[in-house]
TrEMBL record:
GO cellular component assignments: cytoplasm
Family matches, as Gene3D superfamilies: P-loop containing nucleotide triphosphate hydrolases
Region annotation Disordered: where it falls in the sequence: 187-214
Location of the CobW/HypB/UreG nucleotide-binding domain: 5-163
Protein name: GTP-binding protein
Organism of this sequence: Rouxiella silvae
Length: 324
């Protein structure tokens, strides 16, 4: 039986950071797996989680309910039945609704394969001050479906964020466990807490543009194409992702300027630069930049925005800052 936890939380709240922290503290003799589903079609979290010591399966392109059909189940089956991990961490997209994935995990098919432990929901309390986030059904239902709330990014909270968090907690069941952390540094023992939450959730927003989906096809670059892009749109958010071939090298300073200035909630990238690999992860003003030696198989860039964005203008700059 694979001990399984769902790590939920709204867009950019720190799910992948938390998963990386947990993997860094994994007991050496245990085999862990991570299933990650992203809103964007290109899929960057897999690259951010690469080489972190887990068996990784990435399902890009939408919320779990849309991929609930085949890719999600194939990914889950592959991990459980072939990899047979001791533990499985599932990171659904921050823009998705938790109901379908929870129903799938508690369905008969998986009862002899996994034990569903506590669902941990990451919360960036600064988002409680954003009416558009608070009104978002996915944001609310992720919190409602959780067993433990992880108030993350406490290093960045102001007094009013702390007050907003205390006010929000005042509206919840007093028994609800809330842990405050930064950089997702939770106590790994939280993964052993049981799943107790039995709340009936509504079905959730389902205004997805299924017909525009390109699904897993967007992951590869056919023929001699140097680059391509893929779009996704759902629940008031839109994403544009680009994938470039392995020979494409970006100008480091130019790329960092582009990533800092792009008018978007979220910018994620793993690209090739002259010095090696550049990883960029931006949520609002939170920005993480890493450089690593080596060359990635391809370069991937993804932007998520809730306001109308001129993707072509962003794209033309991106194309100009290529060195090759
Ligand atoms: N200031 C601050 N930034 C943080 C903290 N934890 C994570 N971040 C930053 O927040 C951004 C988003 O973190 P991720 O872990 O990628 O968030 P996520 O929930 O996986 O994002 P999505 O998968 O896109 O929904 C990154 O730039 C992180 O470096 C924290 O405790 N404090
Ligand atoms: Mg993530």
């Amino acid at each position: 039986m694979t001990k399984t936890n769902l790590i939920t939380g709204f867009l950019g709240s720190g799910k992948t950071t938390t998963v990386l922290h947990l993997l860094a503290n994994k007991p050496q003799n245990e085999k862990w797996a991570v299933l990650v589903n992203e809103f964007g079609e290109i899929g960057i979290d897999g690259a951010l989680l690469a080489d972190s010591g887990a068996v990784l399966k990435e399902i890009p392109g939408g919320c779990m309910c849309c991929v609930n059909g085949l890719p999600m189940q194939i990914g889950l089956n592959m991990l459980l039945k072939q990899a047979k991990p001791d533990r499985l961490l599932i990171e659904p997209t921050g823009l998705g609704h938790p109901k379908q994935i929870l129903s799938l995990l508690t369905s008969d098919v998986y009862q002899s394969w996994l034990t569903l432990n506590a669902t941990l929901c990451l919360l960036d309390a600064r988002q409680l001050a954003d009416p558009r986030v608070v009104a978002n059904e996915n944001f609310r239902d992720q919190l409602a479906a959780a067993d433990i709330i992880i108030a993350n990014k406490t290093d960045a909270y102001t007094d009013s964020d702390n007050l907003a968090l205390a006010d929000w907690m005042g509206t919840q069941d007093p028994a609800l466990r809330v842990e405050s952390v930064s950089q997702g540094k939770i106590n790994p023992n939280l993964l052993n807490e049981p799943r107790r939450n039995q709340r009936e959730l509504p079905d959730g927003q389902h205004h997805h543009a299924h017909q525009s989906k390109q699904g897993l096809a967007a992951l590869s670059l056919p023929g001699h194409q140097r680059w391509r892009r893929a779009l996704n749109e759902a629940g008031g958010y839109a994403s544009c992702g680009w994938i470039f071939d392995g020979d494409t090298i970006f100008d480091t300073a130019g790329f960092l300027d582009w990533a800092r200035q792009a008018p978007a909630e979220r910018v994620k990238a793993v690209v090739r630069i002259e010095e090696g690999i550049l990883k960029v992860n931006r949520q609002g003003q939170d920005l993480k930049i890493e450089t690593l030696p080596g060359a990635p198989l391809d370069s991937r860039v993804e932007i998520i925005s809730r306001d109308k964005t001129d993707w072509n203008a962003l794209q033309s700059i991106l194309l100009k800052i290529r060195l090759t």
